[in-house]
Design a protein that fits this description.
The chain is mainly alpha-helical. It folds into 2 domains: about 1-65, no CATH class; about 70-230, no CATH class. It has 9 helices and 5 strands, in the order αβαββαββαααααα. It is elongated, with a radius of gyration of 19 Å. It starts with a helix and ends with a helix. InterPro entries: TNP-like_GBD.
């Protein structure tokens, strides 16, 4: 934290203004954020810290969205089922989806091959976006009216996957000409982006495991709280 403040101060000395800082989502980074004055607690969140060279300027703090996605993927796999106000998301639906893909069902969108052996394999960080993706949500949505036993009651899973996918698109935006949620934050896109962020905040505070333990109060909370901090920033 001291080195970061020093760096920002040196950049200010040569005319470069730092508006935001992004770090990975590790225990060390969380400690650094707290040392800077960032509060990650869901009940008392503070997403900015004081600029070391300007008493009137605050610097926003972000966690890298790819790391947050991996943490949520790991939490989902660990809990197997996540309860929230819109239903229940089940990891088993993804396992069954991979089994169907391996059978090469006709007229069904293919699932990325990196999801093979999903049940027993922890995906790498660059594969996590394929798990929380529109294509996977659409595949489950296609199966929903077919009344196949493994995919009954998968509405909650679809909703959960889409929400995480939308959050990732917002915070992984890299192109000023991007479309939809992948586009930049502008006056004309603010309403749509803000709607997703409000939905995430509303839903994340209700997430619980099968024992009704609140997830954002437990050990695997950082992925969810990290996205909430990014939303505040």
């Amino acid at each position: 934290a001291q080195l970061l403040r020093l760096t920002i101060g040196k950049l200010s000395d040569i005319g470069i203004t730092v508006l935001a800082v992004t770090s990975d989502a590790t225990a060390h980074s969380v400690q650094m954020a707290k040392a800077l004055g960032i509060h990650i607690d869901g009940d008392d969140m503070k997403c900015t810290f004081q600029h070391p060279s300007s008493s009137s300027q605050q610097i926003a703090y972000f966690f890298d969205s790819c790391h947050l996605l991996r943490l949520i993927r790991n939490a989902f796999q660990n809990f197997q089922s996540i309860q929230f106000i819109n239903g229940i998301a089940h990891w088993q639906h993804l396992v069954e989806l991979v089994a169907l893909e391996e059978q090469e069902l006709s007229n069904m969108e293919r699932i990325p091959s990196t999801l093979a052996n999903l049940k027993n394999h922890v995906l790498k960080v660059n594969s996590a976006p394929q798990l929380f993706s529109e294509s996977v949500a659409s595949a489950l949505e296609y199966l929903l009216p077919l009344d196949l036993p493994p995919f009954q009651n998968c509405i909650g899973t679809i909703h959960f996957l889409r929400l995480i996918n939308n959050l990732f698109d917002i915070f992984n935006s890299r192109n000023c000409y991007g479309k939809g949620l992948k586009g930049p934050l502008l006056p004309e896109t603010y309403s749509k982006i803000n709607h997703v962020l409000i939905e995430a905040k509303t839903i994340f505070v209700t997430l619980s495991d099968t024992s009704n333990n609140q997830i954002i109060k437990g050990k695997q909370k950082l992925g969810f709280l990290g996205f909430l901090l990014n939303a505040e920033s």
